[in-house]
Please model this.
Amino acid sequence: MHILTRAEEEYLFKTLKANALKECGPVVKEFVECTHGRLVSVLWGCRDKHKAMNKCLMALTTQADLDKLKVQYLNDLAEGKVDHAKLQKEQKLKEEELKKKYKSAGPGVH
Model:
């Protein structure tokens, strides 16, 4: 049995978060748009959108979802479908894509 390294666990967690952000994209975008032109008033002016965003993200980043992703990864690893260099490159591309997407959306979202 293969035990995941810390780097693999981080990769899987980042993948889970990236997938959740992609799925919750419209809700995240609504929150980001609500924050434009606001400072302190974000706390009450965007509360509902913030709660909706968090609810969506939390629903898609549960421990059960992470465990499913780990099992899938371990199965792929056992079948020789995992290329570590490719994984690192894909993860870096996903991170850069998300950074660009949310950086252009407005300040304070990274």
